[in-house]
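Bench notes, afternoon.
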Amino acid sequence: MTSTVPASLFRTNGSSALQAVFLDMDGTLVDTEGFWWDAEVEVFADLGHRLDEAWRDIVVGGPMTRSAGYLIESTGADITVAELTVLLNEKFERRIERGVPLMPGAERLLAELSRHSIPTALVSASHRRIIDKVLHSLGHDRFALTVAGDEVVRTKPHPEPYLTAAQGVGADPVLCAVIEDTATGVAAAEAAGCRVVAVPSVAPITASPGRVVVRSLEEVDVPFLRTLITGI
């Protein structure tokens, strides 16, 4: 976990306003969910196995260990989760070396959050080495804090990553908004007590109390996020 701003700077005294915004990375801010699937397909092809396209919705957004374990079990490939994780990260890194495409509205939203001085954290199930490469495209200075999947004991769908982010910026999770693209990430954010904006990338997500579903980040701005907390 990396942080560039002291947590005490963001503490508010009894305020019910939006205290922080946490964003997922793959499929939410950067259009890389397809990169991961292509890497998985290529690795398993090298191992002599063909992945079923239907498995894509199952592994999307999950921690590497869960996704790798599922694909090993489904294909019967003779490889360990640890070995597969290394191969997948290597394939993915090659795909992002020349930069990654941002999702529609991502650049504008990050700039707006910065202008309003709203504490913003990147919370991803991806490993630190991957996040640091993607940050070259997103901009390190856009985030007060970044939390990687290999820096927490329990990653998404467990709430620990979002609870860690809230603690890191000195915010109450209930007064934080989270933007996610997968059911796994949504589950983690909701378990942490955060308000959620879902922007489905691969599999559909339904709206529910405390959760708003939008078509893209172009529908999200600071007033919208503040309304999630205040209800008005």
